[in-house]
UniProtKB/TrEMBL annotation:
Keywords associated with the record: Cell membrane, Membrane, Protein transport, Translocation, Transmembrane, Transmembrane helix, Transport
Protein family membership: Belongs to the SecE/SEC61-gamma family.
Membrane topology per record: Single-pass membrane protein
Summary of the function given for this chain in its UniProt record: Essential subunit of the Sec protein translocation channel SecYEG. Clamps together the 2 halves of SecY. May contact the channel plug during translocation.
InterPro entries: SecE_bac, SecE_sf, Translocase_SecE/Sec61-g
Alphabetical list of NCBIfam families matching this protein: secE_bact
HAMAP family the record matches: SecE
Identification of the protein by name: Protein translocase subunit SecE
Subunit structure: Component of the Sec protein translocase complex. Heterotrimer consisting of SecY, SecE and SecG subunits. The heterotrimers can form oligomers, although 1 heterotrimer is thought to be able to translocate proteins. Interacts with the ribosome. Interacts with SecDF, and other proteins may be involved. Interacts with SecA.
Organism (species): Campylobacter gastrosuis
Subcellular location: Cell membrane; Membrane
């Protein structure tokens, strides 16, 4: 039982060391990820359109 209590104490100490992100940091990360995903998806759509057009002209 002593080991378990010691484990809980050490866990509490470690949790207090954690730095949680602020709302502003979360918002900025979300916006950054959204923009990157949007740019990559537009690029892939463009590549797909070019390849589709090329293959349709080739066949």
């Amino acid at each position: 039982m002593e080991k378990f209590i010691n484990y809980l104490r050490l866990s509490k100490v470690e949790i207090l060391k954690v730095i949680f992100p602020t709302k502003e940091q979360i918002r900025n990360a979300f916006i950054t990820v959204f923009i990157v995903v949007l740019v990559v998806s537009l690029f892939l759509a463009l590549v797909d359109a070019i390849m589709s057009f090329s293959l349709s002209k080739l066949i």
